Amino acid sequence: MEFSSVQKLCLHLISSAYQRCRLSEQICRLSVGLTCSSSSDHSLKISISDTGIGSSLEEFQEMRVSFTNVADNWDGMLSIKTTGISDSEIHNYQINLKERGSSRITKLPPNTKNGAKFSGSEVCFSSFVNPDLLLAEIHNLLEKMLILNIPNVAIQLVAEDSNVPESRYEKVFLANTCEQLPISTSSLEHLKLGLEDYVLKHGNNSSDHCNSCFTSWEELKVGSGVACSTENGLHAELMMEVVLAISNISTQNTTCFREYGDKTEVLYFKDFSPSTMSQSSMKALKSIDWKRYGLHLGRIVEQDGIALLEWENLPTHTHIDIVLHSYLKQYPTLDKSFRSQIDRSLVKRAIKFSLDDLKAKHSGDFLSSRALQICNYAPDLAQTIAGLILSSSDLNFQRECFSLLGFQSKDVGTEIMENSIKEKIVSVIEMNDKDPDKSKEIAPFLFEEEDHIQEELEVEFQKSYLSPLDLDIDMF
What we know:
The structure is a single chain. This protein is of the alpha+beta class. It contains 11 helices and 14 strands. The protein is elongated. The relative contact order is 0.09.
């Protein structure tokens, strides 16, 4: 069997086991074992076991594996043991993936549970593959699964060669435990914490946070959104979750390595497993109006099945991370046609919601061009208004202004008053700019002001400038 086929089969079985653990209401263990045989054939035994809800034979009925030139590498046989919490027996099956339909499954004599209450599954098979390459692929898969931050699953990876003493390799993968969340917390909130933890790791390659790049989580700007759709005929609710994080790495640290440099790797999960980005999702990324949020997308590059976004004119040390997660609420997931039809629209909606969430939390960084235009002249407006107040001979008018500005005494310095008025002007502008229907213009760059738009702003301001005498004091 070609290595790529064994690899895909193994990763698929791990993902299925992860799903079963996720759906359990108990703390679960998922174990992956790779054992090089001590026998003369030197085959690799692969074992994937979990304490989740128990597997369904439906997930094996339509499983497809390439069997081109595999006769000498793998016989296509899987051994399965599974039981549900309410079952009195452990069910044993043998599945021949070379066969088709129900004939591929052979039911073997069960084992009694002797009244014990537990659930779980184990899938085993043997093949002739490079154990080091397979181990690396599994390790990468499990590292990315941590982004999902499922709290009730602990994963153990063990690899050993029976012919080599002290060759045992073992690692345990646990969900992020920096912040405890209630059991009722949504999967979107878990995904948000998982991406934050991923971003804060040095170069996304270390098991520890990079304190030299990020001194605190507060340096991250994170937005999240979720969109869902239900196909009435099948009652299949498809969820699309998106989390977007913007980070600024310390300019004093030049050692933080990122595999794709300043490009944004769009991490894509399908049914709680890392997956290749679908073409419909790729089209959705290209059609999003990023400029409305101050982000200028250059192009999208596909590399090794990964979507990489190239941004125009972002500062060198600014980075954007995006994770998408598509899943059907029921298990197993069978309705592929329904999913492909609506995947694009759900991606667009969920990303828009995440960008709107970012704008609501960090409105000053996502102002429209017109709002930025007014903000640029807020100091001049504040200076003029403060001058009118302080030079007025109407003491009642002055007292009213001081009260509205929050000052207890008229003995307030000019600079303090100007700053207070400027803050209120900017606050009102930011509040009004949150409504996308009130601003149809393209937003400027998010992190820096473009010199070439300054002249345009000044011309536009002259057209819309209001005299301080026309301002309604109620705006304060």
